[in-house]
Write a structure and sequence with these properties.
The chain is α+β, with helices and mostly antiparallel strands and 309 residues long. It contains eleven helices and eleven strands.
């Protein structure tokens, strides 16, 4: 699968460690956080260009002035940076993600945003995460350009992603937002699951408005997440199944308004992938059906089991 333009982090996605914990920093709710622009320097990182925007942050290509390499810098939106609880979780989750070592997981290098940078105004850098910069495109972009993928390709992608999730789950980390937009294809076809560490924040802080209205598509959410229950490792498996379903068929598992989609998810009204597109084949379709079982107990026990199938 060929590389696209350098828009590696401009997807809906979000995804550690140098700064101190946000609890030790000045209160995010009372301290002014300076606005940032291309050309600014955050810590040792110089912002070179804006390359995307997600549900809760702006992403820049930046230059690490110490190590002399390009990185991706995800900077939390100002309205979220003012919330001390969000900043604290933002750093904590990113630090946990930085400990994940797997060839198919996007690397998190550093976090920052708790150092006073302007003594005159007392303003501090906004919270940010430093990540591996990928020159490529997301699986969603690949799907939109080329259409449904061969069953063999989808099965291979599923095994790689399941293996990556197995490593994360073993470390006690739940992704919470597995979807094609959060899977990157780098140069040479390397597949990377992105946005560990910030997916929880996006689903908790951006998915629901103050009035309780659902934002974005819930099509990849497990029934338990759609019901407001805590996400588990098996929730990630459901989302993996929904991802493979879309890659194999070219369509989302469910369609309609957010409320309609959530109702369909809760009721388990899934049309098997092979019925949507015969080229999917019965074997892959059965795996997807198991991953997307309404009851978590009916899904595979572990991500490692999926990787071995």
């Amino acid at each position: 699968m060929p590389d696209g333009p350098d828009r590696s982090h401009d997807t809906d996605p979000l995804a550690d460690t140098q700064s101190s914990d946000a609890g030790a920093a000045p209160s995010a709710s009372t301290t002014k956080r300076r606005a940032v622009h291309v050309g600014d320097v955050l810590g040792r990182y110089e912002l070179v260009e804006e390359i995307g925007e997600g549900g809760m942050a702006t992403v820049y290509r930046a230059k690490d002035k110490e190590l002399r390499r390009d990185v991706a810098l995800k900077v939390l939106f100002p309205h979220l940076a003012r919330r001390e609880d969000v900043v604290r979780r933002f750093h904590r989750e990113a630090r946990a993600a930085a400990g994940l070592e797997h060839p198919n997981i996007l690397r998190v290098y550093d976090v920052g945003g708790a150092t006073v940078t302007d003594s005159a105004s007392g303003a501090i850098d906004p919270p940010y995460i430093v990540m591996e910069l990928i020159r490529g495109r997301s699986l969603l972009g690949e799907l939109e350009q080329r259409g449904p993928m061969l069953a063999e390709v989808v099965a291979c992608l599923g095994a790689l992603l399941a293996d990556a999730l197995a490593v994360a789950h073993q470390a006690g980390i739940i992704h919470r937002d597995v979807k094609p937009a959060n899977v990157m294809i780098a140069a040479g076809g390397r597949v990377l699951l992105a946005d560990f560490g910030v997916a929880r924040l996006e689903t908790e802080d951006s998915l629901v408005t103050k009035t309780g209205a659902l934002l974005g598509t819930p099509a990849y959410m497990s029934p338990e997440q759609a019901s407001g229950d805590t996400a588990t490792a098996k929730s990630d498996l459901y989302s993996l199944g929904a991802t493979l379903y879309q890659l194999a068929t070219g369509v989302l598992p469910y369609s309609g308004s957010p409320a309609k989609v959530m109702a369909q998810i809760a009721q388990g009204q899934l049309v098997s992938a092979v019925r949507r597109r015969s080229a999917v084949g019965p074997d892959l379709s059965r795996v997807i059906d198991r991953l997307m079982a309404t009851e978590p107990t009916a899904r595979p026990e572990r991500a490692a089991d999926v990787a071995d199938e």
